[in-house]
Fold:
Amino acid sequence: MRDRLATLLVDRYTVEEEIGRGGWAVVYRARDLRHDRPVALKVLRDDLTALIGAERFLAEIRITARLNHPHVLPLLDSGEADGLLYYAMPFIPGGSLRDLLEREGRCSLDATARLVEQVASALEHAHRESIVHRDVKPENILLSEGLATVSDFGVARAISALDRRQLTSTGLHVGTLGYMSPEQAAGATDLDGATDEFALAAVAYEMLVGETPRRWMTDEAVRMGRFFEAEPVHREALDALPGRVEQVLVRGMALNPRDRLGGPGAFADALADAAKGGREVPDDEAREIVRRATELELAGAAETHALTMGGVEQVAAQVGLPPEQVRRAANEVAAGRELTVSNASARPRGERVQVDRVAACEADSAVHPSLVDAIQSSLGIVGHVSSVGRTLTWSPAATGVDDRKIVVTLTPKDGVTRVHVEERFELAGVRMMLPAGGAFLAMVFVMLVATFLGLASSTWATLPLVLGGVAGAFLTVNGYLTARKRRSEPELGMLADRLTALIEGTTSP
Structure:
């Protein structure tokens, strides 16, 4: 194609060498003879040219020529030559963001926020002109002296006008997997700025983590502001960032466009604001933040001697500190109160009922809301949820001595999901005082009868009565707890069975 292009455009350009090749076009470095300047010539694939047609392509791409913005790569020329559709842009010697990522792997938070702001500015300018890019990715973000320039605004617009079946026949898609929004992947044509926001958030994620996310966000992930399915190497990179950065990334890639932040500009602003939380905070200040922000969490932990990891992660997100620093501070705060930090609620001491089941598949985080609804409807108790990786832990929201101490843990691993339901029974509060009080009254009644019969005058005669009353109180309390356990075990068993059936019925093996 190079020789043919050089021959056809010999009066306008000197075609020097191929510098890139993508799904839609081949890119050549050339020299504009008229203005004596280097340019990048993009030539569409022959099969794509046949589908689009010269007239439609040139009309669509010329619409983008009106874009005038410092971070938009301008269109210098376009045309058709013996069936070849081409367009010319300034040649950017610094390469693309893809080239940078291949060299360095990742970017700093400050560099990412700065580049995202520039790209968002270009996208917002195009949106005001009713132009949606549709294919924001590192290859289309060119870099020169620290400045970003967005290219290829017109190509995706021209291709998106094609019938979806026509595109399928060529093996092409508008957009690139990893950066393509769910609505775009579903074939929607009435796309708006939310689609470009999704792609920009995916680019930001890749700059910070080194790869794009492997899955789309669930509603639960958006509510929690956390990538539940992040791989360990991704999680390590995310945890090193200020907590609110992950929340912004999750919102930018929300499954529902309405749950996103409102466009590339809003995403860039939120990321820049979250990045400000990256200041270094002394450990003593972090401990004080944790002490204040987790007051309710610690109050609940006083009953179980554990501070849940979910609570620690929420603190990190709220205050904008790196989660690892918050965990360290939480451990120090917890140590001062004889607490520990654990991945789930600690094993309770004393009497308890435990039920375990195994579902024959791994529960996906997408079914977490349904599982939580099943737990709460079965028990008639409103609770709170902690998530660590893919493990879901539920416990009642109330933590008083007279409230039920129930913990439900769902752990997907090695092709199965382990369902653990546990209730703890304490010899404290109303649970002890009511039956013990009844036994005490019974003992008083026996003493009165003994006095009436004249048996209370002898110490040796009274002692068996006292001991009998104490034993009666103990047996009454023990009987009460045994009855509670007998009622609890089938209830918890039915709950575990329901959760197992729900997991197996909604998750593919």
